[in-house]
Design a protein that fits this description.
- With about 110 residues, the chain is an alpha+beta fold.
- The chain has a three-stranded antiparallel sheet with strand order 1-2-3, sandwiched between helices.
- The N and C termini lie far apart (about 50 Å).
- About 5% of the residues are buried.
- One of its GO terms (cellular component) is membrane.
Length: about 110
């Protein structure tokens, strides 16, 4: 009887340990974070690595694509690839879609 209980307890501990080990922690990134300063001027290669070669497409908006990425520290980021050549070319509609997607980056 005790042997069965010990086996079940060890099996539960094993499953709990390995299920927790395979998950990743998402770290929220606030705008004042010093980590953000390092990535405000990130190189294309860094963004490409964070977004898994730009394969994590969140959405396609008029004139741009929105990608989801994860920094080495675990923080999630959103990267926009746009054909807009100047700030005035960014329409209010695209801005609204972008902000809406940033509120829910995992969708």
């Amino acid at each position: 009887m005790h042997c069965g209980f010990v086996f079940v307890a060890l099996l539960a501990a094993y499953i709990f340990y390995y299920s927790r080990r395979n998950t990743s922690t998402v770290v929220p990134l606030c705008a004042t974070s010093s980590i953000l300063a390092d990535y405000c001027h990130a190189r294309l290669s860094q963004l490409e690595k964070a977004c898994e070669r730009f394969s994590n497409i969140i959405d396609t908006l008029p004139g741009c694509q929105l990608y989801k990425g994860t920094l080495p520290c675990g923080a999630e980021i959103a990267v926009v690839s746009t054909s807009v050549a100047y700030a005035g070319g960014w329409s209010t509609t695209v801005e609204a879609h972008f902000k809406n997607k940033l509120k829910k980056p995992s969708t």
